[in-house]
Amino acid sequence: MDKPEGYKGTTILGMVCKDGVVLASEFRATLGYTIAGRDIKVYEIEPHIGFAGAGGAGDNQALSKILKVETGLFRTRNSRPITVEGGVNLLSTIMYQYKMFPFISFVILGGIEADGTPRLYALDPYGSVMRDKYTASGSGMQMALGILDDRYEEGMLIKDALSLAARAVIAGIKRDAMSGDGVDLITITKEGFKRLDKAEVEKIIERDKQKEKKKQ
User: Fold this and answer.
1) Which parts of the chain fold into alpha helices (H)?
2) What are the sequence ranges of the domains in the chain?
3) Measured distance CA(64)–CA(69) in Å, rounded
4) pTM above threshold 0.85
5) Are 71 and 104 within 8 A, CB to CB?
6) Contact 188, 35 (CB under 8 A)
7) How far is the C-alpha of 123 from the C-alpha of 105, rounded, in Å?
8) What is the pLDDT of residue 3?
9) Do residues 174 and 143 lie in contact, with contact meaning Cβ atoms separated by under 8 Å?
10) Gyration radius from the chain CA atoms
11) How far are the Cα atoms of 67, 93, 107, 162, 211 from residue 126, in angstroms, in the given order?
12) Does the CA dihedral 166-2-51-21 come out positive or negative?
């Protein structure tokens, strides 16, 4: 599906790890060929569920808010949090209901179940769902997937996945004019949803650079 001119841009990705899930993105928001702003693209839905959106910024913000309200209502009514699988089924249903006038949203939903099982899903604007070990979306997805295809290892730990996620997002930034303005890294573990601060992200990127220099 072709995206309207004002909605192009973004590199988002997700990875399943042995000890949780990593979500990542860059910050640039574009309007055609103009940089319209810099904002987060990964949202906390529940402490154990994260939402990364590519496409229309307003659509992703609205969709994440709708999902957050619905999962909150589920928690209130059932005295327990919704499962990640239940969350993606709910999101798929919401997106499918609007298929004639869809949200221009390409979503990566990731999280960790109560038993510690990490899960990762990708959804298109019509609510189609694909479950995978790693995925990427947005205008920089081809560059990001090139890195993930080459370096992702099933069962890798979050500490290693963070370095890989940063490298994949940077690859998108380098070759995609619609992506840029820094790297956002998020972990979802049994301890909950955590967004790394700027200093932590820079440390990971610098450590990865030093490792590459030693290999040369």
Assistant:
1) 57-78, 84-97, 141-151, 158-175, 198-215
2) 8-210
3) 9
4) yes
5) no
6) no
7) 8
8) 41
9) yes
10) 16
11) 15, 9, 11, 30, 42
12) negative
83, two tokens: 């499962």
Interatomic CA distance for residues 131 and 64, integer angstroms: 19
List, by residue number, the catalytic residues.
10
What pLDDT digit, counting tens, does each position of 102-159 carry? 898 999 999 999 999 999 999 999 999 999 999 999 888 899 999 999 999 999 999 9
Domain 8-210 falls in which CATH fold? Glutamine Phosphoribosylpyrophosphate, subunit 1, domain 1 (3.60.20)
For the chain, counts of helices (H) and of strands (E): 5, 12
Q: Are 161 and 188 in contact (CB under 8 A)?
A: no
Per the CB < 8 A criterion, the answer to whether 65 and 71 are in contact is: no
